[in-house]
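Please, structure for the following, as tokens.
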Amino acid sequence: MKKGRVLIIDDDLTFLEEISSILLDAGYEVATCGKAVEAIHVIRMNNPQCILLDINMPGMKGDVLLPWINSQKFNSEVVICSGAVFNEEEVGAMEPAGILKKPFKMNDLIDMIDSAIMLASQKSSHRKSA
């Protein structure tokens, strides 16, 4: 049984390949996008429970995509996963499930993903019962 659906959005193709391989081996269902604009379609089609989102990408930035994700009321939780310098207060105000700065420990990533998936499941259950 899969642990949950994860979407990785990052313009670093090496990062996408490495993290997606690790997460697949760990039992997650994984989709990837190299651009935030592409991610909009993938989010709608795959309904990921956890979205790993880079902040600094060409074109639409992660800090523009995150408020859009929140406004759509998906059953998804976003974890900011970026090596870029960013204002943690501003990003934190957008209510991500977590923030990981690259480089990070793989155990920290897995823990954050598991927490985000749990939050997404609770959100989904709450919406169904409301």
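The chain has a mean pLDDT of 87. Residues 22 and 106 are 9 Å apart (CA to CA).
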